């Protein structure tokens, strides 16, 4: 099972901090899974210009191929101006419409205020559904007050991250088995 964690912003530290906790939890609970963290702050990803993702080179090709080859994706995103960052939107634009078909996608969101949870419901989930993702419905929403000195200080948030990891793994495993059983019915 290949899991990709995607930290979807070039600026700030809270989303990366939360993703680090998430990846650490994944490694501890499911060491047999192949887990990769892609922090967009560490890559030089080109703007989408409508080409197939396979026609790009360098970091752009690497990031998009890693996402396309994954069985599951954990997207970590901050909320900027009541929306997702342009860096994350650009990743969606680089990928084909059905990029997330047969993939489990879970979400972890950092925000300054509790009012921003609507961004997930009104923007991120519809994009993921359009791209054919099997969405883990419960996401982790982390507010500014849950962090102190680049650490998560709210035990409830840590519990929710562990639950998100478990839900992502179990759903990926389940959908993989269902898909394999369905494909086994065909002889070609």
TrEMBL record:
Keywords assigned by UniProt, alphabetized: Flavoprotein, FMN, Oxidoreductase
Domain NADPH-dependent FMN reductase-like, residue spans: 1-143
Top-level enzyme category: oxidoreductase
Entry's EC annotation: 1.-.-.-
Any one GO molecular function term: oxidoreductase activity
SUPFAM superfamilies attached to this UniProt entry: Flavoproteins
Origin superkingdom: Bacteria
PANTHER family: FMN REDUCTASE (NADPH)
Stated name of the protein: NADPH-dependent FMN reductase
The organism of origin for this protein: Paenibacillus solisilvae
